[in-house]
Design brief:
Layout lengths: L2 H4 L5 H23 L3 H27 L5 H19 L9 H22 L4 H24 L6 H20 L8 H27 L6 H22 L2 H11 L2 H14 L1 H20 L7 H26 L4 H16 L5 H22 L1 H7 L7
């Protein structure tokens, strides 16, 4: 792989494409807030899984296919438009707007395959790889489209089957033959994490509108921001650099499976955890001096736990080692959410932030030498 190819950065078109998914994540948060039952959490996680897979499919495609030609730009913009229509339907995807989610989703996924085949027409090895995956990537969205035209619970089962087909397809066929530009690939997923963190800030800001400004309000806002900052630190201080370096160090034939596991699979719980945490902080902000509802406590605890679990899985896949501090932090967050049911919401939020900070601080101390080697000496401009 050439140095120029390795150092390829995210294009402005890709950044524009990602803007649609800022809105999509906001819509997922709104969906959770509408239904905070266990089934509601699960259905929202499923919808996010479909959105995540659509976005990831385009990230893999733009990693291999240039975006400068007129045809590529028009097709990617068409995919962005379809994604926007899909995102509009998210809050009512399980009600009357199932088809408005399913049909655009199917069109976006079909465009992805078309772009792949067209863009790789002069690269036989990669074209053969996408042709092996194409049947799975055509059947899965077709099942999702069908799910949009039936009522729940059949809709949920069909959408879950669609996502399962995609996952099984990538595991069965594999990702051998795919070219992976490490710097570009790692940057794209890091930018999506930024999108999720930004949505958390938006959720807190929107939740603060119209609330009385007093000491409890100021403390809760400060803690909410500190929590999002701790989430940022947990990813961008060390992990993002370690993931990119590990991908760069992998042999060319191993890069595809590594990228699939560490980024496509294990970044999903990281993003889902951020969204759950945003929901919990928004509920906390509404009534900081009262105990949180069970659903609010679950959102906070599950948010921290699922977020940290993504790192545990990624670390084990990349290095065969367990991130003990993060594993312990996730367990502590779940325990706090389940046991501290009489605690005031602002106090529980403070405990969650303290758990996050403690887990990351303990890891930083234990891995300080590795962290110093992994982090770049100069920031990219």
């Amino acid at each position: 792989m050439s140095e120029a190819e390795e150092e390829r950065r995210t294009s402005y078109l890709e950044l524009f494409f990602d803007l649609v998914f800022v809105f999509a994540i906001t819509q997922v948060t709104a969906e959770i807030l509408e239904d905070m039952s266990p089934a509601g959490f699960a259905r929202s996680a499923l919808v996010l899984g479909l959105i995540w897979w659509a976005w990831s499919s385009y990230t893999w495609m733009t990693n291999a296919v240039g975006t400068e030609s007129l045809a590529a730009r028009l097709l990617i913009l068409a995919g962005a438009g379809g994604s926007f229509v899909m995102a509009l339907a998210v809050p009512h995807a399980y009600l009357e707007q199932g088809a408005w989610f399913g049909v655009p989703y199917g069109a976006v996924r079909l465009l992805n395959v078309v772009l792949y085949v067209w863009g790789l027409r002069n690269e036989p090895a990669q074209l053969a790889a996408i042709k092996r995956l194409a049947p799975w990537f055509l059947v899965a969205p077709a099942v999702a489209v069908a799910g949009g035209f039936v009522d729940d619970p059949a809709r949920t089962w069909l959408w879950a089957a669609s996502l399962a087909i995609d996952v099984v397809g990538t595991l069965t066929v594999g990702t051998a033959g795919f070219r992976v530009s490490a710097s570009h690939f790692a940057e794209r997923y890091a930018l999506f994490v930024i999108i999720a963190l930004g949505e958390s800030i938006v959720a807190v800001g929107a939740g603060a509108a119209g609330l009385e400004r007093d000491a409890a309000f100021a403390l809760t806002v400060a803690l909410a921001f500190a929590g999002v900052a701790a989430l940022w630190w947990a990813y961008f201080d060390f992990t993002v650099h370690a993931a990119e370096r590990s991908l760069q160090a992998a042999a060319p034939e191993a890069r595809g499976p590594f990228a699939r596991d560490v980024f496509t699979f294990f970044h999903y719980p990281i993003v889902l955890g951020i969204i759950f945490f945003a929901v919990g902080t928004k509920k906390t902000l509404a009534h900081p001096s009262e105990p949180l509802s069970q659903a609010g406590r679950v959102a906070l605890g599950l948010g921290v736990a699922v977020f940290l679990a993504g790192f545990v899985l990624a670390r084990y896949r990349a290095a065969g080692r367990i991130a003990w501090e993060r594993l312990a932090g996730g367990a502590a967050a779940l325990a706090a959410a389940l046991l501290l049911d009489e605690l005031r919401a602002v106090a529980l939020l403070a405990i969650m932030v303290a758990i996050l900070v403690a887990a990351v601080a303990a890891e930083t101390v234990r891995l300080r030498e590795l962290r110093a080697r992994m982090r770049p000496s100069q920031r990219r401009l």
